[in-house]
Amino acid sequence: MFSVLLMWLESAVLGLAMSMTPPYSTGISTQVAEVMVKEAVGKLYSNASTDREEGKQALLSAARESTETRDQIVKALVEVLENPQAQPTKNFAAWRAAAELVGELKATSAIDILVAHLDDNDGVVGLSLSPFPAVQAIIRIGEPAVPELVRALSSARSAVRLNAARALGEIGGSLSHEALQRRLQTEMDPEVRFYILAALSRPALPFTRN
């Protein structure tokens, strides 16, 4: 009788321990993820390109682990984009790294801050979009960014209107096409008109990016 009671007690204790294990494990892994994310984000501020790249790869790898970790990383990256110390005029490398990451992660929560910086560049302006990390990130995010880009076509800053038109042309879709046609009727800046026309020359079919 005593042995039966002992076996029952051992089974009950084991069952209780197993039922408590998942939250305990999740809590530990969440804490580890928080430390890792903080460390990796910190590397984006480094003056060394190798450190920034290491931080980027660590964040991308961690984002694939779980939705919770991805959301945590996106939140941290948006904070970098909003950080006065990481603004393009102060630390362009950090801002670019964060913008590239939110673009790759297709983080819709970053759309507003990216649109606000459509005209920020690394000082080497030309036909390529590579000097404009916000534009490149917006294009990677794709269709969800279209409404904000359409609003940006009415910006007082011509460079913002120009890059909004370029982004809409790359993303494509009927909404982008219609908005560009409407803006063309009132746009007075020759350079902006040039890029609107270039964007309209693309097919109106949705543009897909991996």
Descriptive account of the structure:
- It is a single chain.
- The termini are far apart.
- The protein is built from ten helices and no strands.
- It is elongated.
- The protein folds into two domains: 1-105, no CATH class; 109-210, Leucine-rich Repeat Variant.
- The protein has helices at residues 2-43, 49-63, 67-82, 92-104, 111-116, 133-141, 146-152, 158-171, 174-184, 190-200.
- The longest helix has 42 residues, at 2-43.
- By secondary structure, it is an all-alpha fold.
**Helix fraction by DSSP (H/I, runs of at least 4):** 55-70%
Rg from alpha-carbon coordinates: 24 Å
**Element-by-element helix/strand order:** HHHHHHHHHH
- Secondary structure tally: strands: 0
**Sequence stretches where pLDDT stays below 50 over 5 or more residues:** 1-28
Strand proportion, as a percent range, falls in under 5%
Average pLDDT for all residues:
84
- Spatial gap, N to C terminus: 66 Å
Structural class: mainly alpha
